[in-house]
Specification:
The chain is an alpha/beta fold. A hairpin with a 4-residue loop joins β1 and β2. The protein is globular, with a radius of gyration of 31 Å.
Length: 633
Amino acid sequence: MNEQASLLVQNMEQAWRLFIKEGVINDDVVKPGIARSWRRCYKQKKPGVNISDRELRQRQIKNRILIDISKPVIKDLVNIHNLHMHSFSIMLMDSDGVVNYRINYGNDIVTLGHHCNETHCGTSGPALALADGVGTEVTGYEHIRPKAHHWHTIGVPIHDRENRVAGALALLNTTGQCRPFTMQTVSLAAYLIEARLLQQELLMNVSSSIMDGMPQAAMLVNEEGTVVSANKTCFHLFQTTPEKLIGNTLTNSLVSEPPCFFATYLQQESPFYLPIKNIADRNDFKQICRIDRRTIELEHDNLLFMFTFNTLNQQMANQLLEKPDAFAGLIGHNQDFLRVVDYARKAARLASNVLIEGESGTGKELMAHAIHQQSGRKGRFIAINCGAIPSELLNSELFGYEDGAFTGARKGGNPGKIELAHGGSLFLDEIGEMPLPMQVSLLRVLEDKTVTRIGGKDSRKYDVRIITATNRDLWQEVKRGNFREDLFYRLNVVNIKLQPLRDRKDDIPLLAEYLLRKCCSQNELENVEFGHDIIDILCDYDWPGNIRQLQNVIESSLVLATEGLITTDMLPYYIIERNTTVEKFRSAKLYEIEQAVIKEILTRNSGNISQSAKDLGITRKTLYNKIKQIEGI
């Protein structure tokens, strides 16, 4: 810092001390805007800084459009500034100064739900931007609170189409002054958000005008499945008000069997049909609607969807109720997942055998059941787990037995699963666990469709579609000699591979909300919501147990959510620990991450160099050299 700059800082410090002590402002040193703010904040008692998780969620729903528009701009700002500052935050605040979205880099001073207006935080760039409606930067002793005297804060208001302050974009640097032109950069970003917001509002107004002129119910839905606008006919159809419908994902309003989540249909071919019930009362009223979807493409890869609802007459409604969409329970909007579902839907119409591959918990049985339902086969869906039944009993389970076939046999005999599935589908789960002798017997069934009960003489022909599933690589099992190659080809006519949840993390918010609503409904609980940071934490976890594990975590969290909100402390410890590690590494340097990993591996192996080097994939000599560079080992 040069001599002139140092003198300015000293003068500002003296002016601040004079004001705090005597309430007198040195107008020669203090800028007019800062002086006005100091007077407003003088001896003001500081109220609570953070709002509740529930209030934050309500604000985020209300400001969803502003948040969606701002996110990519804020991420670009982070990419610009993380090269020039060691500790900073970029925040999006609503019109009250509450942080609705933020990215912290190297600090955790600002949290979601944090109040940044004058009343709560005193004089700062964001506070003045909201109070005066103009872009402002505040440095050092211009901040009235002592803890902020080493900060540089910038705030730029964001206006709506009526020139009201809709929010503000702010930057907090906790390690001194920002580089030149930072104010101009933040202002440009705020103006960009404002322009996009105005464009979106204009489009919304035009769309709303179009919808108001429609005879049928219509609504606008964003990419997350949240309703952002609707016409009067739509409110009447759902027997609700704008306050209850706008911002609602309609999880509790659209009903199918199994329960479906509305956003599942954002990517589905239009039209589709759903039974709905009104939101106002929780009765059993149902109305079948034909739903048409139109995609509205916005700039910057954003989309809106317009849905129109046409009620069907009773005859058509009854026909659809008898045969609902079997794949509605397969929740997701990940493009790869949707392609798999579409393939399965087409394959369901055929009689071909199906092999479903995927890790445990990915929904293989749910997929098998959907294929059977969609196929229209009149027979039953019979499931058997080949890994859960002792090999000596598997024969009798599949083929059945006659009276007196063996000691302990039921009097009169017993039909096997293949007989029970006649005209329907037989689901053989964990087919990779089936013993080789049984594989030979199953191969014969597939070849001639005949079954002979154990102890019997007559063979009977059955019409059964075989659907199998495995969490193993079945082709590798063939190579190892654990599975017959000819049987593999017989079963693997239609191959469906279900992704693990870690490969479709964009579906986690959708799945989590769906599973939460489903658990609440099954347990007759009032609506429970996720805390503001829960979804981010769930998305950071890799879910080795896939969707089944996610459902278990949500169910266990519901036990503790006595006040209608799932918070961080209700999640299992292993998810919280994982999230803490991820957050720590995000702000760490590469060498810091390397050191942390080496320390962790050495601790796990009780200091064993050979094993640690093997786990790290490096030589012992390289590991010794790295240990020498790390302090504290």
